[in-house]
Every structure is written in C-alpha cells, then in structure tokens.
Design a protein that fits this description.
Blueprint: E1 6-9, H1 12-19, E2 23-31, H2 36-49, E3 56-60, E4 63-68, E5 77-80, H3 83-88, E6 100-105, E7 112-119, H4 125-144, H5 161-165, H6 171-187, E8 209-215, H7 218-230, H8 235-247, E9 258-267, E10 285-294, H9 300-317, H10 319-325, E11 338-346, E12 356-365, E13 372-378, E14 381-389, H11 395-413
Parallel strand pairs: 5-6, 9-11, 11-13
Antiparallel strand pairs: 1-4, 2-7, 2-12, 3-4, 6-7, 8-14, 9-10, 13-14
GO molecular function, one term: acyltransferase activity
Biased composition (Basic and acidic residues): 181-190
Organism: Streptomyces hoynatensis
C-alpha cells in the first residue's frame, strides 16, 4: 500500500445507501470438509487483491468518505452457530473492514454456511459475486498449497458511478425528469405490500432480517426459458411478469386493477465505455420503475408482454443512467412495489473434493420498507430470493409471496 491514505467522497447515491444501512450479503452453503485455516489464509490473500476491503466508510464534515489507510484493516473470519443472526450482522464500516465474513456451523445435515456482508454503498451484486468467487478460488489454492496471483485488482479505489455519467444529461433535464416521476406517483401512487410488522407507521421492534426462496428444478428452468424464447421475451421480462402476478394477491384492495410498479435493475458496468469488469469493486447498478395496472389472476405471460415494450424503451433511452444522475432530485420518491434484480447464471466454484458449494444466495438488505426479488441461476436451477426486514414485514407475508411465485412458475413451465 501507499504510504499515504487513499480516499474519496461518497456520491449522493452512495451516501444515501450508507445512511439507509443498505448492504449486500452472500450466503454459500458448503458441503463436505471445510478447512478453517485455509479460509483465514484466503481472506488474507483476498485483502491483498482488494485493498479497499480493508478500508473504512465514515462521515466527515457532513459528507461520507471512503478511505483506505496506509495499513488497511485486516479481514478476519468470524464464527457462529446461528445463520439468521449471521445474515443480520453488519460490520462497523466506520472502523473497517468493509467485508465481514462468518463461518456458520450448524447441524451436520445442513452443512456449513459462509456468510459475507458488504456495505452496498461501494458494491453491487455483480462485484460481490466476483469477489466471492475469487475468495473461494484463493481458498482452493490454499488447500492445494499453491501460490496464487496476489496482484491488486485495479483500480484499487474506483470512483463513483456519477463521475462516469457526467455530462450525459443537463441539470435542467434531470430536474424535469424528477418532476415527471413525482407527478406520476402523486397522481396514482403504486400499490405496495402493507408493512404488517410496522408499529404506528414506523419500523417494528424486530431488528432482524428474513428471507424466503422460490426454486425451480433444472427441468422447470429449461422449460421456462424455452417459453420465454418462444414468446419473444427475455427470461428476465418473463420473470418480472411472473413476480407481479405473484405479488398482486397480497395487495389491497383485493378487487379491481391496481397500479403496480416493477423496479427493474440494470447492470451499468456493461453500458459504460469502456465497460467496467465485474471484478472491480464499485456500486455500478441502477434501475427504473415500470408501471402497470394489475388485477388478481392476471396471466404472468400477458403481464410480461406488457412489460417488454416499456423495458426496451427505458433501456434505449438510458433511463437507468438518468436515475443515478438525478438521484439528488429523487430522494422524496417512494420505492417500487417490487424491485427485481437478475444476476444471471453464476458459476459453481471449484473446491477441493469432496467439498462443494451446494447453494448460493445474494441478499440486498435494508432497514427501509422495500420488497426485493433476486433472481439467480445456479447449478441449472432458477432461484428467486426474497430478503426482507422484519421491522416492516412478517415471515408469513414474504413466504406467501415466495409460494405464489413458485406455484405460478411451475404452471408456466408446464405450458
């Protein structure tokens, strides 16, 4: 490391994520033998590949700061026996480091879980998966007694996404865009899942997080993919239609069509010039809302066709980029009814036999009342994870949403 610290100010969207205690948590389910000493060695090597993980996030003079000190904060392996608690544990980002890793050991039949928490202010889903893949590759090298490449990934301290987008939109255009968004929401606010765990309009007493999952078999996943292609849709658009249909029975009032807003996440790494590799630690994801009137019993395929045109139009128009650039003007706007992040197919890491990574979850967590759906494909199966704050929603609410998603997905895959 340099003898001088590296630091930069957080951008508006990064600062808001830090203030909202937003983070991204990955959970690997590991089967077979796990060598804890090799995990600790791999964490030390990971810190050399990514010095920013040994950095700090803190407030100074009214602004957020991301800083890497000359001697970064070391990464350490925590131990635990409660998976839910490990998922909810956050690091102290002000003192560092910016990665908290916990090995959770439970009943033998459930295997072990490797839980990693990152502050959302400086990461996105694509880079946390890449970093975790690198960590497990370093673990495999440590088990094999190999010397891995420890060259730092560049840039060591990436700039904010706003700097990459500077000049694409005039300030007046951004204000006008925010005003249009505000007018649309004021005229017909989107229906949102009732925060059943809230107390007097605020967060309830449970500080923890929960998660529910809808999982398709490899055969069902292949069938759903085939249906999307035959219908002239992307799999992501079909899944968005499926999720809106699954959410609608949980919204009030029960009768009639309701305005529902589907937040569609967009990976901006591939849309920048030059593209930003997934290995670079940076918050480079955005998205945009698409509004539809949705009635109970709506056909997911029909909803997907109605979503397809607006999604294509927003992508062509650069709406996701505009959402980031206009962020200071959008802070008063409410969340979408449901926010969908599709991370695509994730490779299964190669581990020393007989160990294997049987399962992966990528969970965006926030203290705000937001409903997330994270779509991944792993080992041939499509999974939809629904992480949530128990201060706002009950386990029953989110489990019903996951069950409805699973049921509709099974019906679609049989068409």
């Amino acid at each position: 490391m340099s003898a001088a610290p590296l630091e930069r100010a957080l951008s508006p969207h990064e600062a808001a994520m830090l203030a909202g205690d937003m983070r991204v948590v990955t959970v690997w389910e590991l089967r077979g033998e796990v060598a804890e000493d090799a995990l600790e060695t791999a964490l030390g090597h990971l810190a050399r590949r990514y010095p920013v993980l040994g950095g700090r996030l803190f407030a100074r003079g009214g602004e957020g700061v991301l800083r890497i000190d000359p001697t970064p904060v070391p990464l350490r392996l925590h131990r635990g026996g409660d998976l839910a608690r490990a998922i909810g544990e956050r690091g102290d980002w002000a003192t560092g480091p910016l990665l908290r890793t916990t090995l959770v050991t439970g009943p033998a039949e459930r295997g072990r879980h490797l839980v990693a928490a990152f502050p959302r202010a400086c990461v996105d889903g694509m880079c946390v998966v890449a970093v975790q893949q690198e960590f497990l590759a370093l673990y495999a090298a440590a088990r094999a007694g190999k010397d891995p490449d420890l060259t730092p990934v560049l840039p060591v301290l990436a700039g904010p996404l706003e700097a990459e987008l500077e000049g694409r939109c005039a300030p007046g255009e951004l204000r006008a865009y925010a005003e249009r968004r505000a007018a649309e929401e004021a005229e017909r606010p989107p229906a949102r899942l009732a925060p059943a765990a809230a107390v007097d309009g605020g967060p309830g007493p449970d500080p923890g997080f929960g998660t529910a999952r809808a999982e398709l078999s490899p055969a069902e996943t292949a069938a759903l993919t085939g249906l999307a292609h035959r219908a002239g849709l992307t799999v992501n658009t079909l899944v968005c239609g499926l999720l809106l249909a699954a959410l609608r029975p949980s919204l009030e009032p029960a009768d009639g069509a309701l305005p529902v807003s589907c937040g569609v996440a967009v990976d901006l790494r591939r849309r920048l010039s030059p593209p930003v590799p997934n290995e670079v630690i940076q918050s480079a994801a955005s998205g945009f809302p698409v509004r539809l009137d949705v009635a109970r019993g709506s056909d997911p395929l029909s909803l997907a066709h109605r979503l397809a045109g607006p999604i294509r139009a927003h992508l062509r128009a650069g709406t996701a980029e505009r959402e980031v650039a206009a962020f200071p003007h959008l802070t008063a706007q409410g969340p979408a009814s449901l926010f969908v992040t599709n991370l695509g197919e994730i490779d299964s890491p190669s581990l020393p036999e007989p160990a294997r990574a049987a399962r992966l979850q990528v969970l965006p967590l926030t203290r705000m009342p937001m409903v997330f759906a994270v779509v991944t494909r792993y080992r041939g199966s499509l999974h939809v994870d629904f992480p949530f704050s128990r201060a706002w929603y009950t386990d029953g609410q989110i489990r019903r949403l996951a069950a409805a998603t699973r049921s509709l997905a099974a019906e679609l895959s049989a068409r």
